[in-house]
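Protocol step 4 of 6: structure prediction from sequence.
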Amino acid sequence: MNGQQRSDIQEGLEVAIILKKDQRSGMKTKGIVKDILTNSSFHPHGIKVRLTDGQVGRVAEIIK
Protein backbone atom coordinates (compact mmCIF):
# COMPACT_ATOMS: atom_id res chain seq x y z
CA MET A 1 0.00 0.00 0.00
CA ASN A 2 1.13 3.52 -0.61
CA GLY A 3 0.74 6.14 2.11
CA GLN A 4 -1.58 8.61 0.40
CA GLN A 5 -4.78 7.82 2.34
CA ARG A 6 -4.85 8.97 5.96
CA SER A 7 -7.41 6.26 6.80
CA ASP A 8 -4.80 3.55 5.96
CA ILE A 9 -2.35 4.81 8.61
CA GLN A 10 -2.62 4.33 12.37
CA GLU A 11 -0.26 4.81 15.30
CA GLY A 12 1.90 1.73 15.86
CA LEU A 13 1.97 0.77 12.17
CA GLU A 14 5.32 -0.10 10.56
CA VAL A 15 5.96 2.14 7.55
CA ALA A 16 8.70 3.31 5.20
CA ILE A 17 8.95 7.08 4.98
CA ILE A 18 10.95 9.48 2.85
CA LEU A 19 12.63 12.20 4.90
CA LYS A 20 12.79 15.77 3.57
CA LYS A 21 16.57 15.46 3.03
CA ASP A 22 16.08 12.22 1.05
CA GLN A 23 13.38 13.46 -1.34
CA ARG A 24 15.82 13.76 -4.26
CA SER A 25 17.35 10.31 -3.78
CA GLY A 26 14.10 8.61 -2.72
CA MET A 27 15.88 6.74 0.10
CA LYS A 28 13.36 5.22 2.51
CA THR A 29 13.58 5.04 6.30
CA LYS A 30 11.65 2.33 8.18
CA GLY A 31 9.99 2.91 11.50
CA ILE A 32 6.86 2.79 13.66
CA VAL A 33 4.28 5.61 13.44
CA LYS A 34 4.00 7.70 16.62
CA ASP A 35 1.94 10.66 15.34
CA ILE A 36 0.06 11.50 12.13
CA LEU A 37 0.85 15.09 11.17
CA THR A 38 -1.23 15.55 7.99
CA ASN A 39 -4.80 16.66 8.73
CA SER A 40 -6.31 16.08 5.28
CA SER A 41 -7.66 12.64 4.32
CA PHE A 42 -5.46 12.43 1.18
CA HIS A 43 -2.06 13.77 0.12
CA PRO A 44 -0.52 12.96 -3.30
CA HIS A 45 3.04 12.81 -1.91
CA GLY A 46 2.12 10.72 1.14
CA ILE A 47 0.75 11.41 4.61
CA LYS A 48 3.29 13.12 6.88
CA VAL A 49 4.04 11.21 10.09
CA ARG A 50 6.43 11.28 13.05
CA LEU A 51 8.14 7.99 13.87
CA THR A 52 8.80 6.74 17.42
CA ASP A 53 12.47 7.82 17.04
CA GLY A 54 11.38 11.40 16.24
CA GLN A 55 12.06 11.45 12.50
CA VAL A 56 9.42 13.16 10.32
CA GLY A 57 8.63 12.31 6.71
CA ARG A 58 5.97 11.28 4.23
CA VAL A 59 4.78 7.67 4.07
CA ALA A 60 6.08 5.98 0.92
CA GLU A 61 4.76 2.51 1.76
CA ILE A 62 3.00 0.60 4.49
CA ILE A 63 4.87 -2.52 5.59
CA LYS A 64 2.72 -5.53 6.45
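Step 5 (inspection) to follow. The longest strand covers residues 29-36.
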